[in-house]
């Protein structure tokens, strides 16, 4: 099993920044891909960004490209999401997911483990 714990969410004004963290524990060696997803009230969960533990690959949703940056610290088993130039439409519950496969797809069905989420609220 793999446990994921997100942190770093909060309330911020439009144009501000936040950095989310996802700390992984347990059988982390069994995972290859880490991803961030978000869910706004009344909407489906959507892909935000993904990264391979091995490095060399990152992917971003078009809506966040150029504003968000995903990174990982292998020694700390932690993945980060630096969010800049935040917009009210970025508001939502942000989830960290881990996939056993080295998936480059953006579907949340391919991720095997999930955290509880951290709330991000961007005011206009």
Q: Your description of this structure?
A:
By secondary structure, the chain is mainly β. It has no helices and eleven strands. The protein has strands at 2-7, 10-13, 18-26, 33-39, 46-52, 58-60, 68-73, 78-83, 92-99, 113-114, 118-123. The strands form two sheets. Strands 2, 4, 5, 6, 9, 10 and 11 form a seven-stranded mixed beta sheet that branches. The termini are far apart.
Q: What secondary-structure arrangement, pairings included, does this model have?
A:
Elements: E1 2-7, E2 10-13, E3 18-26, E4 33-39, E5 46-52, E6 58-60, E7 68-73, E8 78-83, E9 92-99, E10 113-114, E11 118-123
Summary, kept brief:
With 124 residues, the chain is mostly beta strands. The chain has strands at residues 2-7, 10-13, 18-26, 33-39, 46-52, 58-60, 68-73, 78-83, 92-99, 113-114, 118-123.
Key features of this structure:
124 residues; mainly beta; four-stranded antiparallel β-sheet; 11 strands
Helix/strand-derived category reads: mainly beta
End-to-end Cα distance, whole Å, is 40 Å
Tally of alpha and pi helices:
0
How much is the radius of gyration in Å?
A: 13 Å
């Amino acid at each position: 099993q793999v446990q994921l714990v997100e942190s770093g969410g909060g309330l911020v004004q439009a144009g501000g920044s936040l950095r989310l963290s996802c700390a992984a524990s347990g059988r982390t060696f069994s995972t290859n891909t880490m991803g961030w997803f978000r869910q706004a009230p009344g909407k489906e969960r959507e892909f935000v960004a993904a990264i391979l533990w091995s490095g060399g690959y990152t992917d971003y949703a078009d809506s966040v490209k150029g504003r968000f940056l995903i990174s990982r610290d292998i020694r700390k088993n932690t993945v980060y999401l630096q969010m800049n130039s935040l917009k009210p439409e970025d508001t939502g519950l942000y989830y960290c997911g881990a996939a056993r496969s080295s998936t480059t797809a953006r579907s949340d069905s391919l991720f095997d483990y999930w955290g509880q989420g951290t709330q991000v609220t961007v005011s206009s």
